Amino acid sequence: MSKRGQVTVFLVVGIVILLLSAAMFFIFSKVKTTPLEVEEKEAFESLGVKGQIQSYVESCMRETADPSVYLLASQGGIIYPEEDSKILLTDYGMINYAWINGVKGLSREKMEKDLGLYLEEYIDFCLGNFDTFLVRNIIVEPDYDKMKADFKIQDNFIDMQLNFPLKVTLPNGDELVVETFSSQLESRLGLMLKAVEALEMPDFDFTELISFPYQPVVFPYDESVMIYSLADEKNLDTPLAFMFAVRNDYPENKPPVLDFIADKTFKVGNRWQEILTAEDPNNDLLTFSSDSDKFPIKEDGTIDVEMITPGIYKVIFAVDDSRGGKHEQEVTITIVKN
Which of 106-115, 246-255, 280-289 ranks highest by mean pLDDT? Predict the structure, then answer.
């Protein structure tokens, strides 16, 4: 058989195997899921009308609340801001300040309140007109004015309580009232909040972030603002990302630090050419200086000196920032005869 014929046979066999695999997967998935769907339907029908309404509303509570948790986390713990001055407005949305000039901005009470308000505002999109019951001649009359949702953020889940009076009229004319509902969302939001709350803001070390079981990302926004994001990839099927901002308009001045300057040995006639460097935590403007006329240094740290007179010299080099911070190093410079 030619090579082309062999390739054709292999392709045909491969396609057949692929189709058989797909067919078997479809059959087994039906065998697996259909009984589950039947069981769920039978369980729902066995609840009775009151239990069915209870189950229906609580299912809508979970469906409505789930995206609100992701929205709240992506905005740093808020959905409905109370003061614009406490949030960072970017081109892509708003982010809550977890710390702003000495004031902490994270509040679990505010988060729980916002989640409750979101549920009260949007659950009707899931409930609709209770058509599931209307087709069975069961009339459900909701009192949205008396609806009140309460949330409690725990470490690995979120508790939800809903007071929502429903007047139910059965096909035979009997009436009943259902008004209290409770459900729970699996979410590690509470654990993430504990991690963020433990940070020593505003000057926590980045090593603190990487010590958490979350994926950290840092976005420098401007000279005063940093944006942080922690992603929890263990949060169910969809990673939960908590993003927050830290604003410090009046950072404590930290002095600059000269990079190490080694002692020097030169021969007469040699030329010392070097640029001294330093680090400043506040990124202030730095000025370099020397206490010796024999070994001057320019303000930008440049040294360009010819060695003329033999001897051993003790020279102090210094760097100053624009806010009074200073650091010095003493350097021994030895000049020997040729």
Answer: 106-115
> What's the confidence (pLDDT) of residue 240?
93
* Nearest C-alpha neighbor of 96 from the set 118, 72, 120, 113: 72
- List, in sequence order, every residue forming a beta bridge with 166; answer none if it has no partner: 142, 178
Could you give all domains of the chain from N- to C-terminal order, each with its CATH number? 49-247 (no CATH), 257-336 (2.60.40.10)
> For residues 281 and 222, what is the distance between their CA atoms, to the nearest angstrom?
15
Q: How far is CA 114 from CA 65, 69, 77, 97, 283, in A?
A: 11, 10, 9, 16, 39
Instruction: Give dist(CA 276, CA 317) in Å, integer.
Output: 9
Per-residue pLDDT, 81: 94
Are the beta carbons of 312 and 264 closer than 8 angstroms?
Answer: no
Please, what is the average pLDDT of the chain?
A: 86
- 253: tokens are 């001045």
Predicted local confidence at residue 46, as pLDDT: 56
DSSP state of 127: H
Judge residue 159's burial from the number of C-beta atoms within 10 Å of its C-beta, 0-12 exposed, 13-18 middle, 19 or more buried. Answer: middle
Closest CA to 238 of 52, 50, 66: 66
Kindly report whether the global pTM for this prediction surpasses the value 0.70: no
What tokens does 94 get? Answer: 């708003």
